[in-house]
Amino acid sequence: RSSCSSDTDVEMSSYSSSSPASTSKQHQPADHSAVVDVVVAPAESNNENLVGQKQKINTNAEPVVQQRETTLNDSGVGEGGYRMNINESDEGVVESPVLGHSRSVQQNEERLRRKLQFFFMNPIEKWQAKRRFPYKFVVQVIKIILVTLQLCLFAHSRYTHVNYTWDNTITFSHLFLRGWDITMEVSTYPPETGPLSVYVIEDFFKTIDYAIDGYANLSEAIGPYSYPNEDNTMAPMQLCLYRYKDGTIFGFNESYVFNPEIDSLCLDLDGNVTTIGSRKFLHQKDIHINFSALVKAELKFAIKTVNFKAAGPITSPDCYQFDIQILFNNQDHDGQMTLRLEAEPTRLVCHGDVEFIKKSQFDDALRSILNILVILICIVSFALCARAIYRAQLLRIIT
User: Fold this and answer.
1) What are 115-155's pLDDT values in tens digits?
2) CA-CA-CA-CA torsion for 14, 17, 22, 23, nearest 10 degrees?
3) What are phi and psi of 30, to 5 degrees?
4) What is the pTM of this model?
5) What does the DSSP assignment read for 128-166?
6) Residue 317: what pLDDT?
7) Is pLDDT larger for residue 20 or for residue 385?
8) Could you tell me which residues belong to the region Disordered (predicted)?
9) Does residue 179 come out as left (phi exceeding 0), alpha (psi in the -120 to 50 range) or beta?
10) Are 162 and 243 members of one domain?
11) What's residue 212's pLDDT?
12) Do residues 70 and 158 both lie within one domain?
């Protein structure tokens, strides 16, 4: 027994003398992709299983280092059931490929979650998150301010124009419509009075004569009205008659002659019509009105005026031409011919004082600059919106 133990001691001492090389191999830096088991085996060892016999180790042989990849589960236990400690090194934590892939997926999900969260933030929240100047929010604020200013100027201009047109229509009704009353100026429901109408032939011609006299005495009106001619002379009024080509009624024996085709006849009322009257004037022209066939009649003339409006120091006056039309409506043929006056305004180019024209040009320049700024800011806003939609589509594809 003593000889055997001595032989064993020699063998183990020789094995221990060669173990530092293997120990240095074990403490080499490990690869991060897998855990390495270091197994030291003699170069010329017998691979057979020795039961009850001693295995003699060749002390002259160099140890061979065999590397074997071992997969660890979450608790750090290897395939053989043994546990290994994973220590941190200077290069990072050694972990398995499964854990690395799982962590990479989690990082991608977190990154995508942050992108979605940032995309649906409002500009203030984005500024609080990244401290980046919210230029898109500023662009929208500037656009709202400029567009609102433009709409206010346009609404003020349109209101002034419409209000001025309506007031002049009321004035023309008083000047040129026979039988016009102040109760007709306000539209109420139900109306306080019936429609302005004529019921006898004499009133028809008197209404035409009343309009002709009012137009001839235009200079007596309070408003600054003028004739459309360059020398401010009275232009001839135009009377248009729209009649059925043939329309004769014999009510006593319930018979008629009727052709539904409508003919129109327009003629100018010269200056002498104011002295002889419209009825004699038409008789001289051999024009006879059959009221059974008369559909409607229109009396047309034009008036020029200038609107001195106190809307500001840089707001220039407006020049207008009103195309006035007095309509005698007999389409129902019920014995009531209704009257209506229409005034269609047309804005003209004014030729006023030179100094004020310069101010007017300055006003036009400011409005043009405002319009250009609105166009530019709307283009920028459209580009930003298109960019946001494009990024949203990319994010939709990713998710």
Assistant:
1) 778 778 877 788 887 887 888 888 999 999 999 999 998 88
2) 140
3) -85, 150
4) 0.61
5) HHH----HHHHHHHHHHHHHHHHHHHHHHHHHHHHHHHH
6) 79
7) 385
8) 1-32
9) left
10) yes
11) 93
12) no
